[in-house]
């Protein structure tokens, strides 16, 4: 029995503990991301933002959560019950499971899989199902149109995200997220990857259905998009999922382009290197998240055909071309990463 | 080992059950969703085998792209299953004949199927065991050396299919208003705007 406990139960408890360690701070971060969003947007529009609940309105996210929790869950009688309930759960779950492979620091990762970046890409490409299922199961025109729009948008921008990831993999020579961060990059590699960084951030905005690409929930034409029929906790799960995806996409940006937990700009001052990697990682994620909020407060919403044009006619050819450019530059400089034991 | 066995049976049971549900579910949207569940469990089986690259590609390509389009089409079509069933009964004999012919052909092909010696060697030892490679690299090394020709041919077949699909659906409709981004960007103020001083009581010609 003791043997059984050692071999099977102990690892399970260890993994469960680690999962809690990731999920709980994440939920907190998500809650305060909504607060940050309202404060940042308020500041940009010369307003106060939430300032009533607690000092500086800091307890506002908790109040919002409690309010949503206390509301009645309404399931439309014409809806497809099972799928209607399943959709928000799926969205929320998918937003959570991606974090299993995110490295927060050297060795600070739940599952250090070989194909981490592919796993992230796979999970993020699944996000579309929650929205599509919600749109269809609601049996409402607004929700359905929102769902269709969102699906088309996410599928389109995934293509360019995939190609951007390929350029990064070319430079780093590994699909493992830790190795992607640890790979040495020279200045011209950073320079080469910079346009792809911009493409990636814009695609991330589109992939997470955020402004200026928030057509799926364009309230001026679709009331609220795929989640009109949802209320209470089912709505809250969609909401949580959306914000969690924002944090996830920021984390991906940081890992792929901004050097993860390393000190920014390769500085080696002692008071900077003293800071734990986790702190740098979080700070960098916050910086990218600010771009999300900033663009929401400043940019008007795209029109649907413009969105598709940007995805298919500009980003796709550009990133495809850039794969060739990066590969060519790497071969020219003899810098193509080679596995150990293989001659170039 | 016990855990692996349990997980294996779990994945394969769900895979088979969802496969059955795909063809027996009344609602076509449910069918597609069960198909996706099936893909997932197949990916799980790949992970169990240690082929994590194949598992991820399966999820990315089939679940992330192909099944989304399936779902799209099925949701929009609004299929009436009862009418489909009537049609099925009417065409049962034809379908059965076609099915048996195809089955016969497949059996005939596979009974004569044999591998070349090189391929057989590759099947036995896809890559040498001493240099421990992750399976992404192992796949790449086989695919881009021994099977380069087949790989390229598969790519060409896909390209032809893609071009075919585009030519079949491309229509040039006259009289459609389109946004011309270049013209819009290149528009100058002096081309479209004219400022004139107008004396009172007179108009502009």
From the structure above, extract its key features.
heterodimer, A: 344 residues, mainly alpha, 2 domains, 12 helices, 0% strand, globular, B: 205 residues, Four Helix Bundle (Hemerythrin (Met), subunit A), 10 helices
Question: Mind sketching the topology for me?
Answer:
The complex is a heterodimer of chains A (344) and B (205).
Chain A: H1 2-44, H2 60-70, H3 81-97, H4 116-137, H5 141-172, H6 177-182, H7 187-207, H8 219-222, H9 232-257, H10 270-273, H11 277-298, H12 304-332
Helix pairs in contact in A: 1-2, 1-9, 1-11, 2-9, 3-4, 3-9, 4-5, 5-7, 5-12, 7-9, 7-12, 9-11
Chain B: H1 2-24, H2 28-49, H3 52-77, H4 81-90, H5 92-111, H6 117-124, H7 135-143, H8 148-169, H9 181-186, H10 189-192
What would CATH call the homologous superfamily of the domain at 1-79 in chain B?
NADH-ubiquinone/plastoquinone oxidoreductase chain 6, subunit NuoJ
Number of strands of chain B: 0
Q: How large, in whole angstroms, is the Cα Rg of chain A?
A: 21 Å
What is the CATH architecture descriptor of the domain at 1-79 in chain B?
A: Up-down Bundle
Can you tell me the overall shape of chain A?
globular
Ends distance of chain B: 93 Å
Percent strand of chain B equals under 5%
Radius of gyration of chain B: 29 Å
> What is the ordering of alpha helices and beta strands of chain B?
HHHHHHHHHH
Can you give the helix content of chain A as a percent range?
A: 55-70%
* Unreliable parts of chain A: none
Number of helices, where a helix is a run of at least 4 consecutive DSSP H or I residues of chain B: 10
How many helices of chain A? The count is 12
The overall pLDDT average of chain B reads 83
CATH topology of the domain at 1-79 in chain B: Four Helix Bundle (Hemerythrin (Met), subunit A)
C-alpha termini separation of chain A: 53 Å
